[in-house]
C-alpha cells in the first residue's frame, strides 16, 4: 500500500473525498430533517378549469347517480325475471288447458262409441296399443268385439303362417311364435299343391306375395297403410293400391261398410251360408279399429250371424268402413294367451294369414 507522501495531489484529494463522503451524507440528511427547504410553486403555469373541490363534488355526484342507476337496473332485472317466470307459468297453464281441451272432442267421441259396446271385460294398455274386449250378444247371435287403438303403427302386423307362402298355422301358434298379445285370422285361402295359399292379392313386407291380382268375384283387399290406417276395397290395377301406400293386407269378401254406409251384399253371400261364425275388421273416424268375431257351432248356415245382421250392428256402433274376413272354422280371436271365441271346428284351424297386435 502506497503512503500519502507517495501520492500525487490529485490522488490525495480523491482519498479524502471518499473518506469524508459518509459524514457529508449524514450531515445533509440531518439538515434536511431539521430545516426543510421552502419550495414555491409557479402557479402561473397551470390554471385549473374548476376548483378541485368542485371537481370532487361532481365526481361524487356522478358516482352516486351511477350507483342509483345500478340499483334501478338490478331492480328492473329482478322484476323482469319475476314477470318472465309469471308469464312462463301462465303460458304453461294455457298450454296444459289447450292440450286438455284439444283432447276433449277425442275423449267425448271415444266415450260415445265405447258406450255402444258396453263395459269392457278385459283391457290391455301400453304406450303402443290400447285394447278393450267386449261381449256382443244382441239375442240372435253371440260373439266378441275388440276395440283397438294403435298408438304405434307398428303395433299391428300381418304374418304368413310360419313366414312362408303355402304354410298354415293356427292364430294361437302365430301369436306365440311372434310374441303378440292378440290376434285374429285374416284373409281367405285356397288349398292346392300340398299347401294352403293366401287368396288373391296379399301384400306383406313391402311386396306382393304372388303378385297383384285385379279384384274379381266381389273380392276386396283390406289391410293397413304405413301410417297405421285401415285401407281396403276393390282395385282394378296395382297403381290404385300402391297409391294408398299399403303396409300389409289380405283379401276376402265382401265389403260391409264404406264411409259409414252399408254396401250391397252379393246374393251368394246372403245365402251361402246364411249364418256362420264371422270375423270382421272395421275402423272408426278417429282410426281406431274394431274387430267382431261371432260364434257358430258349424258351417251349415244354421248358427252364427248373417252379414246383414253384422251390417246393422256395425252401423249402430258407428263404424266408418268394415270388411268381412275369412269366417266359419277359420274365425279366431286370441287375447292374452287364450282363445276367446269357440271355434266351430272344435279347435283352431290352421290358416295362412293372421293379423297380430303387439304391446
TrEMBL record:
<feature type="transmembrane region" description="Helical">
    <location>
        <begin position="12"/>
        <end position="33"/>
    </location>
</feature>
<keyword id="KW-0472">Membrane</keyword>
<protein>
    <submittedName>
        <fullName>Phosphodiester glycosidase family protein</fullName>
    </submittedName>
</protein>
<dbReference type="Pfam" id="PF09992">
    <property type="entry name" value="NAGPA"/>
</dbReference>
<keyword id="KW-0378">Hydrolase</keyword>
<keyword id="KW-0326">Glycosidase</keyword>
<keyword id="KW-0812">Transmembrane</keyword>
<feature type="domain" description="Phosphodiester glycosidase">
    <location>
        <begin position="178"/>
        <end position="358"/>
    </location>
</feature>
<dbReference type="GO" id="GO:0016798">
    <property type="term" value="F:hydrolase activity, acting on glycosyl bonds"/>
</dbReference>
<dbReference type="InterPro" id="IPR018711">
    <property type="entry name" value="NAGPA"/>
</dbReference>
<keyword id="KW-1133">Transmembrane helix</keyword>
Amino acid at each position: 500500500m502506497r503512503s500519502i507522501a507517495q501520492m500525487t495531489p490529485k490522488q490525495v484529494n480523491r482519498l479524502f473525498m471518499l473518506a469524508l463522503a459518509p459524514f457529508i451524507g449524514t450531515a445533509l440528511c440531518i439538515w434536511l430533517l431539521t430545516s426543510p427547504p421552502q419550495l414555491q410553486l409557479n402557479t402561473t403555469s397551470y390554471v385549473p378549469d374548476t376548483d378541485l373541490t368542485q371537481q370532487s363534488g361532481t365526481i361524487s355526484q356522478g358516482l352516486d347517480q351511477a350507483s342509483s342507476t345500478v340499483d334501478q337496473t338490478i331492480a328492473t332485472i329482478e322484476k323482469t325475471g319475476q314477470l318472465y317466470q309469471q308469464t312462463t307459468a301462465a303460458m304453461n297453464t294455457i298450454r296444459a288447458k289447450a292440450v286438455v281441451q284439444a283432447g276433449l272432442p277425442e275423449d267425448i267421441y271415444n266415450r260415445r262409441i265405447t258406450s255402444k259396446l258396453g263395459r269392457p271385460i278385459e283391457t290391455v294398455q301400453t304406450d303402443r296399443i290400447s285394447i278393450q274386449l267386449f261381449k256382443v250378444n244382441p239375442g240372435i247371435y253371440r260373439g266378441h268385439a275388440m276395440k283397438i287403438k294403435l298408438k304405434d303403427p307398428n303395433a299391428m302386423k300381418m304374418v304368413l303362417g310360419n313366414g312362408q307362402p303355402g304354410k298354415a298355422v293356427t292364430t294361437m301358434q302365430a301369436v306365440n311364435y311372434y310374441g303378440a298379445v292378440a290376434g285374429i285370422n285374416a284373409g281367405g285361402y285356397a288349398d292346392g299343391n300340398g299347401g294352403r295359399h293366401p287368396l288373391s292379392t296379399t301384400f306383406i313386407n313391402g311386396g306382393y306375395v304372388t303378385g297383384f291380382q285385379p279384384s274379381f268375384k266381389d273380392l276386396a283387399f283390406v289391410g293397413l297403410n304405413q301410417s297405421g290406417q285401415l285401407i281396403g276395397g276393390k282395385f282394378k290395377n296395382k297403381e290404385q293400391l300402391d297409391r294408398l301406400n299399403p303396409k300389409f293386407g289380405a283379401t276376402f269378401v265382401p265389403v260391409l261398410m264404406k264411409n259409414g254406409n252399408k254396401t250391397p251384399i252379393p246374393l251368394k253371400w246372403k245365402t251361402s251360408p246364411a249364418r256362420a261364425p264371422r270375423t270382421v275388421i272395421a275402423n272408426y273416424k278417429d282410426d281406431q279399429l274394431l274387430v267382431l268375431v261371432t260364434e257358430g257351432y258349424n258351417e251349415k248356415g244354421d248358427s252364427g250371424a248373417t252379414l246383414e245382421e253384422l251390417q246393422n250392428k256395425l252401423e249402430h256402433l258407428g263404424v266408418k268402413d268394415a270388411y268381412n274376413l275369412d269366417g266359419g272354422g277359420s274365425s279366431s280371436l286370441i287375447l292374452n294367451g287364450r282363445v276367446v271365441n269357440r271355434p266351430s271346428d272344435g279347435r283352431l284351424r290352421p290358416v295362412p294369414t293372421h293379423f297380430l297386435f303387439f304391446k
